[in-house]
Design a protein that fits this description.
Blueprint: H1 7-19, E1 29-34, H2 35-48, E2 54-58, H3 65-73, E3 77-80, H4 83-91, E4 99-101, H5 108-117, E5 120-123, H6 126-138, E6 145-150, E7 172-173, H7 178-187, E8 191-195, H8 205-228, E9 236-238, H9 256-266, E10 300-303, H10 307-310, E11 314-319, E12 322-326, E13 329-333, H11 342-346, E14 355-358, E15 373-376, E16 385-390, E17 400-403, E18 424-429, E19 432-437, H12 442-448
Parallel strand pairs: 1-18, 2-3, 2-10, 3-4, 4-5, 5-6, 6-7, 6-8, 8-9, 9-10, 13-15
Antiparallel strand pairs: 1-11, 11-17, 12-13, 14-17, 15-16, 18-19
Helix pairs in contact: 5-6, 8-9
Bound molecules: pyridoxal-5'-phosphate.
Pyridoxal-5'-phosphate binds next to helix 10.
Length: 450
């Protein structure tokens, strides 16, 4: 499976968009999403895991409705972090039992909605379990329910996206609150899932495997205890996302198949059996009356990959409006900055992209100019610089800068600062271009602030 889309493929598709008139004068920036590449990645992901696995693609990495419609048809599920994301998923046609709900601050009405519709719920903390318990005393639900546990295995190279340190705002710490966690699993028979997420990008595969391992050991222990109480076992294991991708075309990221092999090694039980049986409450049985099988569970794995699925599947093109030639420094002024690349602007040491330059006809420029370039955006603050000191071919007004690997956590992190119009988003499928989302109109920008 290739990792980064090649410069030549990107230039070819961008040139096609120019020739077909899909990049108009007002499209000062355009995002692209390669739907075939996305489908290939999802097929590969699916082939690595048991067939009963629910691949809950993290909506936060790419919430475009047209993309979710595409991924639904490819058989995935989705992971939603907010009520808003749940509603995007429902609109895209996802059935509730293909949606995993993970917010760390769910309101009572969020919880009620999830339980009423049958969405898989991962509670974040012990108080939330209490809320769910009292709701379940008053209603029936087909939801399956887990709890997020922080395995406390350590942080990766990016602190802001690491969530399995000694402290994390997410989940219940496995060591710090072990007794309370055990009590919860013995008090709530409806609690049949565990959930973890170690971090997003910057976490080595070994750290992710450790996290799963810690939770696997914990789940086996709980299942022993539940067995003595004749309670059904924990059978849903949500491993979260976090497998990193490469933003450097000459660096290979870890392979999904190697990750799965390491997981099989560390937590073999998760991959045994058919996995066909799904433990869930039914309307007839309700959640509180269950005392079912106590034999080892047919585990159902849930994954929540976002960046791994989307990151390399898209790119951004922005017209160069001006080139500033100050003594010792060249600056290419483009039409996207911290509105689209907030992490890159504020935390440049952690977030990297590769760049290419196209001429006005979309032809790839080669060579390297005498001086490197700063690539600066249109926003009114000094930090609005997407990248500094980038070696580029000579850049002229009217060229375009291509920012590679922007398929995930780019448009989803759009900032409203300075009221810029969101750019047009194009998809490419089987060589054909389509509009996935229109450029925002000025009236819509105004409406947002009304
Ligand atoms: C709970 C949860 N699951 C999944 C993800 C997706 O992570 P990634 O995109 O790195 O796979 C995140 C990202 O922050 C997350 O918070």
């Amino acid at each position: 499976m290739i990792s980064n889309l090649s410069r030549h493929h990107i230039a070819e598709v961008t040139r096609q968009a120019l020739q077909e008139g899909l990049i108009r004068e007002e499209d000062t920036a355009v995002l692209f999403q390669d739907l075939d590449y996305l489908a290939a990645r999802i097929a590969y992901l699916t082939s690595c895991f048991p067939p009963t696995t629910l691949h809950g693609l993290a909506i936060k990495s790419n919430p475009l409705l047209r993309i979710l419609e595409h991924t639904r048809k490819l058989g995935t599920g989705v992971e939603a972090a907010t009520a808003g994301e749940i509603h995007i998923a429902l609109k895209a046609g996802y059935l509730p039992d293909r949606i995993v709900f993970d917010s760390p601050v769910k309101t009572l009405s969020d919880l009620r909605f999830a339980l009423e519709t049958g969405i898989h719920l991962n509670c974040d903390n012990l108080d939330e379990l209490k809320r769910v318990d009292s709701l379940l005393k008053k209603m029936h639900s087909t939801s399956t329910i887990g709890i997020r546990i922080n395995p406390q295995v350590g942080v990766g190279s990016i602190l802001e996206s690491s969530v399995a340190g000694e402290y994390s705002k997410f989940g219940v710490p496995v060591t710090g609150k072990r007794k309370e966690l055990e009590e919860a699993f013995l008090s709530y028979p409806w609690l049949t899932g565990v959930h973890l997420h170690v971090g997003s990008q910057g976490c080595a595969m070994e750290l992710l495997v450790n996290g799963v391992g810690v939770l696997y050991d914990f789940a086996l222990l709980i299942n022993e205890k539940r067995k003595t109480k004749n309670e059904k076992p924990i059978s849903i294991f949500d491993i979260g996302g976090g497998l990193p991708i490469s933003y450097f075309s000459d660096q290979a990221p870890p392979l999904m198949e190697d990750y799965v092999a390491a997981l099989k090694d560390r937590a073999p039980g998760l991959f045994q059996g058919t996995g066909a049986q799904r433990h869930r409450g039914t309307k007839a049985q309700g959640h509180n009356t269950h005392k079912l099988t106590t034999s080892p569970p047919n585990w159902r794995i849930i994954t929540e990959f976002g960046r791994w699925v989307y990151g390399n599947s898209g790119w951004t093109v922005s017209r160069v409006e001006y080139v500033k030639r100050d003594p010792g420094v060249l600056t290419a002024m483009i039409h996207v900055g911290a509105d689209l690349f907030v992490r890159e602007c504020l935390n440049p040491a952690d977030w990297h992209h590769e760049y290419s330059v196209l001429d006005a006809q979309g032809r790839l420029k080669e060579g390297v100019d005498d001086l490197p370039y700063h690539i600066a955006g249109p926003l009114c603050f000094a930090g609005d610089i997407v990248a500094r000191d980038v070696p580029l071919p000579p850049v002229e007004e009217g060229d375009s800068i291509v920012i590679h690997d922007t398929g995930g956590y780019t448009f989803s992190m759009w900032s409203r600062y300075n009221s810029r119009q969101t750019p047009r988003i194009l998809g490419v499928r089987e060589g054909k271009l389509l509009v996935l989302k229109e450029r925002e109109r000025l009236e819509e920008v105004v409406e947002f602030w009304e």
